[in-house]
Automatic annotation (TrEMBL):
Residues 16-58 form the GRF-type domain. Residues 60-87 form a coiled coil. This is GRF-type domain-containing protein. The keyword Metal-binding applies. It comes from the Eukaryota. GO terms for molecular function: zinc ion binding. Keywords: Coiled coil, Metal-binding, Zinc, Zinc-finger.
């Protein structure tokens, strides 16, 4: 039985005009979505020939419509994934900024508590005692208040 399509079986594959075995590629154009064809392995390079031969029969109109719709949905989904990736990156940056703000705020709060604590200790010391040892080691360990 004779082959009714415009296809050439792989066993009967001829060489392209360069003398090389052509490779099977897939068309993703709107007119031939998903249709396979044989083309020169050097296509797009210097010295490539223009060998071209369809490997699949021409698609029906309904097939083209369905494939093009699926391709559009796939492309839209990929674009959405890219957008979601950007959004997630922006949220990570915002979260990092908030976290750093909290860390800095708590560090300042801790520093303020220590300053207030030192100020309270200073107020408890006699007015002539202003050494850093008095403030750091508290009044009981202060050398300047010990009676000789």
């Amino acid at each position: 039985m004779e082959n009714s399509c415009n296809c050439t079986p792989i066993l009967k594959r001829k060489l392209c005009y360069c003398g090389e075995v052509p490779i099977l590629k897939t068309s993703w154009t709107e007119m031939n979505p998903g249709r396979r064809f044989w083309g020169c392995r050097f296509y797009g390079k210097v010295g490539a020939c223009d060998f071209f031969e369809w490997g699949d029969p021409a698609p029906h109109a309904r097939y083209k419509s369905v494939m093009n719709g699926l391709l559009r949905k796939k492309n839209e989904a990929e674009e959405e994934i890219v957008k979601m990736g950007r959004t997630m990156r922006n949220w990570k940056i915002a979260l990092w900024v908030v976290l750093m703000f909290i860390v800095v705020r708590e560090a300042i709060r801790l520093h303020d508590y220590r300053v207030l604590d030192l100020e309270a200790i200073r107020l408890q010391l006699p007015s002539d005692c202003m050494t850093s040892e008095c403030l750091i080691w508290r009044q009981s360990d202060c050398n300047c208040h010990q009676i000789a």
